[in-house]
Every structure is written in structure tokens, then in C-alpha cells.
């Protein structure tokens, strides 16, 4: 049972992000780019293997040392064989814990493109059979960000996977 339809969830999330983003701009924070790289999944996929080369790019706005918002696109983990699945997403990062140049916290967001492809084996060649549509996926987890100068390395983890991205801030 859904409390809100997928479109309603996305509208509420976008409204929240726009609110945070608007407040961020008023505070004159910093813009940057994040490059998505790789992921690792903690459980096997029902069919085939996970795509763990999740190349993509995001625009990040850092309000301060603790709060940032990020909008981007990457090749997601459901990509397999000749099937390419891309995710467009929005996320909020909150990192209230700091140890020297490393920040720790959590993230939450929503993304599209996590439709589930199902393949069939045709004599050793896997062919796309059908796609189970999922218009919106909510996600969240823990993160650690190492900042050095205008560069950063960010690791994200949730119960199903871990991901790595690199970034640069325009100071």
C-alpha cells in the first residue's frame, strides 16, 4: 500500500529540495561537480550480475560544511547485456560529524530509471524479455566525505550497496 502516489512523492521531495536549495543560495555557498564511478552490491542479483560501473555526473551545491544538495544522472546497476538504464536523481546530504578533513553523515533522495529488466536465455545468449516498471525509487543511507582543498571523495553505503564518487568545488 502506498501512502502517496509516486508522482506525489517526487513533487514533495522536489519541493523540499527547492526549499533547501533556495535557502542555500541565500547563504552564498559553493557549487561543484561530482563524478560517479563504481559501486559494490552486498547481495547477488536474482538474474545475471549487477552493473558496478556507474559512470555519471552531478551538480552539487554545498550550503555549508554540513548540508548539500545534489542533482545528477548515472548509469545504474540494472544495466546488463545490451540494456542500459540511467537514473536521474536528487539528493540531500547532511554531514554533522567532522574529524579533521573527513565528514560523516547521511543522505536521502529519489531517482528514476530503476525499472527491472528480465532476461531469458536463448541458447547461451541472454535476451531482454520484459521490463518491470518502477517510476521512482527512494533511497538513503550513510556517507563519508573526505575534503582536500577543492576536491572530495565521497563514499555512500546503504543496506544493499556501496558507491564511490569524486568531486570538485568551484571556489
Structural commentary:
The protein has 171 residues and is mainly beta. Helices cover 12% and strands 58% of the residues. It is built from one helix and ten strands; from the N terminus they run H-E-E-E-E-E-E-E-E-E-E. It has one helix at 6-26; strands spanning 30-41, 53-62, 67-75, 86-99, 102-111, 116-122, 125-132, 137-148, 151-158, 161-170. An eight-stranded antiparallel beta barrel has the order 1-2-3-4-5-8-9-10. The protein is elongated. The mean pLDDT is 86.
Structure summarized in a few sentences:
With 171 residues, the protein is mainly β.
Question: What tags apply to this protein structure?
Answer:
two-stranded antiparallel sheet, mainly beta, single chain, 1 helix, 171 residues
Radius of gyration: 17 Å
- Looking at the structure, what is the overall shape? elongated
Specify the biggest β-sheet: 8 strands, antiparallel, barrel
Number of strands: 10
Class by alpha and beta content: mainly beta
The N- and C-terminal alpha carbons lie at a distance of 46 Å
Beta content = over 45%
* Main sheet: strand order: 1-2-3-4-5-8-9-10
Q: Which regions contain 5 or more consecutive residues with pLDDT less than 50?
A: none
Q: Would you list the SSEs in sequence order as H and E? A: HEEEEEEEEEE
The average pLDDT value, as a whole number, equals 86
The helix count comes to 1
Helix share, percent: 10-25%
Amino acid at each position: 500500500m502506498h501512502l502517496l502516489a509516486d508522482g506525489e512523492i517526487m513533487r514533495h521531495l522536489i519541493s523540499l529540495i527547492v526549499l533547501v536549495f533556495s535557502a542555500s543560495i541565500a547563504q552564498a555557498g559553493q557549487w561543484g561537480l561530482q563524478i560517479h564511478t563504481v559501486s559494490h552490491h552486498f547481495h547477488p542479483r536474482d538474474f545475471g550480475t549487477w552493473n558496478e560501473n556507474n559512470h555519471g555526473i552531478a551538480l552539487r551545491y554545498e550550503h555549508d560544511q554540513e548540508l548539500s544538495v545534489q542533482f545528477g544522472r548515472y548509469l545504474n546497476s540494472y544495466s546488463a547485456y545490451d540494456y542500459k538504464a540511467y537514473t536521474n536523481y536528487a539528493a540531500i546530504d547532511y554531514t554533522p560529524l567532522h574529524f579533521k578533513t573527513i565528514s560523516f553523515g547521511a543522505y536521502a533522495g529519489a531517482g528514476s530509471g530503476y525499472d527491472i529488466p528480465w532476461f531469458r536465455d536463448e541458447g547461451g545468449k541472454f535476451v531482454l524479455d520484459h521490463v518491470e516498471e518502477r517510476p521512482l525509487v527512494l533511497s538513503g543511507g550513510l556517507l563519508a566525505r573526505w575534503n582536500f582543498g577543492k576536491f572530495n571523495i565521497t563514499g555512500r553505503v546503504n543496506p544493499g550497496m556501496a558507491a564511490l564518487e569524486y568531486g570538485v568545488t568551484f571556489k
